[in-house]
Structure formats: C-alpha cells, structure tokens
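Give me the fold.
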Amino acid sequence: MASIRSRIVRELTHQYMKRQWIQTGSDAGQGRKSVAAARRDFERRMSLLPTARDVRLEREQIAGVDCEWHVPKGCDGSPLIYYLHGGGFVVGGPSTHRRLVSHIASEAKMRAIVPDYRLSPENPFPAALDDSLKVWRGLRSRGEDSMRMVIGGDSAGGNLSVGTILSLRDAGEELPKACFLMSPWLDLAGEGESYETRLTDDPWFRPEQMKAVAARYCGASELRKPLVSPVYADMAGFPSTLIQVGNDEILLSDSKRLADNIDTSGGHVELNIYPKMWHVFQYFIGQMPESREALSEISQFLSLQVAN
C-alpha cells in the first residue's frame, strides 16, 4: 500500500502538472513562449530544494559543455556517476536536479557529474546526445576509468543514458560498468500498451502531451530510430542495468520492453516496478518513504557493480 505521504504528494503534484503542462498550440511563437515560461518555472521551483548536506557542488566546463559536480565528503577519488537529467528534452538542467542527484551521490558514496546538455526545440535531436558523448569522451580523455563509471538518468535523461551507451558501443569504445534508469522515456512513438492501460492511473501525463513534446525533439520520420526511441534498438553487449518505474505511469511499458530486450540479448537487467508510484517518484526524497527505498536500491546496485 502506498504511504500516506506519497498519496499527499501524488495529489499535490497532479494539480500542479495540470496547471503547468507545456501548451501544445500550433502557433510557433506561442510554443516558444510557453517553453520559455515552463523552463523558468521549473528552474525557479526545483533549484530552491535543499541538497544532501554532505555533498559539495562545483561547476566546470568539459568539451565546451557546462557541467555540475556533486562530491560527497571524503569521496574525491570515488567512482563516478555520469547523470543525465530529465525534462522531456525541453526543460531542466543541473540546477533542477540537484536535490535528486546529490542524494544519489550521497547514498552511493560516489561522485556525480551532470552535463547541461542543449535543449529542444531550439536544438533538436541529436544535439543533446552529441553533448552527452562529448562530455563522456572528455572525462575519459582526462583519465576517468570506464570500469569505475556508471551512467544513469531519469525520464528523457534515461533515454539519453541508453543512447549514449549504444553510441559508444557502436563506435567500439569502452562502456560504463553499469546503467540505472528511473522512469525512462524510451518510446517517443508512444506505441507501448501502457499508454492505454495506465491512462486513467497516471496522475501526470497523457499520450497526446507526450507526442507533442516528442515533436519538439525530432521529426515524425525519426521517432523509431534506435537513438531516439531505444526500445527499437539492438541491446547486445549492454552493461548491467537497473530500471525503476512506477506501476501507475503511462511509460511503464517502455521500461518493460527495454528490460525484455536486454534480457533477450543476454544482458543482466533488474526491473523494479513500484506499486502505486508515478513518474520519477524518486525526486521526492525526504518527503515520502518510497523515494528513500528506491535510492537505497540504486546505491546497493551501484556499489555491487563497481566492486566487481
């Protein structure tokens, strides 16, 4: 049963999302204005949330991309979490995800870095993925060991995490030791069964809204490209992966399909479906016990992976 706190958070965020969803009108000028307003609001609200107390924040530019470091006390030489933030490829940045990433880093006792990749619609696919690859390769060129690096992300950042790994694999480069994904958005074509079966359960999203956001990221002819929608990709050689997803979100089938593909390809994957939870519920660490449970699971998974 969902905790009382989670039920309160669910209702409050449901009301907020109803008010704040990006407008999907056909007028291009209106669209740009609504995107800018959504970015400002998201930034204003999320950047004020407190970070983990033992984590030091630092800014640095790597390969021309602004990045933010999260370094827990006493962990300067620890393994590295390469984190790609969510936001539908349209909103978000390192500051909006400080709370979540700092707590993941603190819990896992690992450094983390968050690239401020370019956003759409000004910078459509593959700009965000290109930025991710530039920063990853910049870190590697500085001596970071891929066997002590993991990639993770939420929502659209989960998509970019998988896309980054697939791109590195196809280029014949060394892969991260592991991957963790929270409510990853992996099918921008929106063809999974949960887009219908979870329609009345999801407190945040509707399929038509997701399609409108996807259209800001790429053209209709690109929706089924493996680097746009990784559920259509060959997952051979993919590293050990943990996927967390809420049972009540319309993106549930994205996670299930990716897990099946990794398993069929001979990879190791752990899929944890949290009852009564919604999209990236982990974000509410400190407000509900389910978020703490999920971050503890991520920490244990990462500790085991980098130790082997």
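The beta strands are 55-62, 65-72, 80-84, 111-115, 149-154, 178-182, 240-246, 269-274.
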